[in-house]
Amino acid sequence: MSAFISGATGFIAQHIVDGLLKQNYKVIGTARSQEKANKLMKQFSNNPNLSMEIVGDISDVNAFDEVMKKRGSEIKYVLHTASPFHFNVTDIEKELLVPAVNGTRGILNSIKKYANDTVERVVITSSFAAILDLNRFNDNSLVLSEANWNPVTKEEALSNPMAGYCASKTYAERAAWDFLKENEGSIKFKLTTVNPVYVFGPQLFAEDVKNVLNTSCEVVNQVVQSTIDTTLPVDCSGQFVDVRDVAKAHIAGIQNDNCIGQRLLCSQAAFGVQDIANVLNDNFPQLKGKIAKSNPKTNAVENIGICQIDNSKTKELLGFEFIDLKTCLIDTVSQIVEQKIIG
Ligand code: NDP
Questions:
Q1: Ligand 1: residues within 6 Å at CB?
Q2: What is the domain extent for residue 170?
Q3: Residue 169 catalytic?
Q4: Whether residue 157 has pLDDT greater than 90
Q5: Nearest Cα to 57, choosing from 30, 17, 88?
Q6: pLDDT number for residue 340
Q7: Nearest to 332 by CA among 248, 174, 208, 233
Q8: For residue 341, is pLDDT > 70?
Q9: Ligand 1 pocket check: which of 5, 6, 12, 55 to mutate, most ligand atoms within 8 Å of Cβ?
Q10: What total number of domains does the chain contain?
Q11: Could you read off the pLDDT of 231-256 as tens digits, one per residue?
């Protein structure tokens, strides 16, 4: 039986595919074009356990019908990672909300229609964006956990792309849990969501390191591309987790029965962009003197200035240590430096 993964070309998804293949799963991935599918197949050395299917824009609620009709009888696990993650949009509703929500509803409905007898576990890549409260992001007394939901309204969602993205993840995840309730008794699959904070870490394939990286790694890349004159804020910028841990959490979502019905809030620690600069200056002599200077004064260690996270429940469920910021950044930036995409 196979694991089906939507958006297999994505930054996080590639690490999940890699993890699944290493554990000898048969994997069916989706890409938006044949060209992207061929590239991924080649990157995975045409591994016979990997096959690719083309699924177009997931704004179409029926986007997954054809593939579920064709391959559904082979699929035991579904991992839905595809969703727009960028802020470069002009129409928030059309470019962020609709694909996120329709993609989630659509894939669950296609499973119900065409793979109801075979699919046992579904893992959806949600986000900390579905948990946080943008209006209280800078409230250090606020402690958020797996139990919280982003209260973002539709009006706020449409006011700027950041709020729009957070709403897209909130509404999509809600749609998934609602689907489960609405279809109680008529579907057999169990649901887990993975809710990561900012995901850093190396690209699975170094050749994918370009001048501009995926949205979350671009936070690190911006520091790599900074100059000695750049002054970075000492404020805390957010929380981070390594992509390899996020991939492991997805795989736990299909393997570990204790994860059924859970939201896995994946976060290692708070960080500020100044902390990133400090690690880079200390560990990359080729960057020191070119990028923003070190400054030992940063607020992230004490997690000052932003809301806090209590993800002890997730950590207990997963049972492994998350990779620390220094290790994560060294691995992320070594790749950038090796590809000579610097300064
Ligand atoms: P990527 O941009 O690398 O991957 C996104 C994937 O979704 C790509 O495969 C992309 O296809 C696909 N996709 C996007 N929009 C559509 C659409 N309209 N129709 C079909 N496919 C689409 O980002 P990440 O790997 O970082 O993100 C993966 C998931 O993780 C997303 O759900 C994101 O919200 C979530 N997430 C990410 C975090 C992070 O910090 N990176 C944090 C929390 C959650 P294509 O390659 O063709 O563009």
A1: 7, 9-13, 32, 36, 57-59, 81-85, 99, 125, 127, 169, 196, 198-199, 214, 216
A2: 2-136+143-201+240-268+310-322
A3: yes
A4: yes
A5: 30
A6: 72
A7: 208
A8: no
A9: 12
A10: 1
A11: 999 888 899 999 999 999 999 999 99
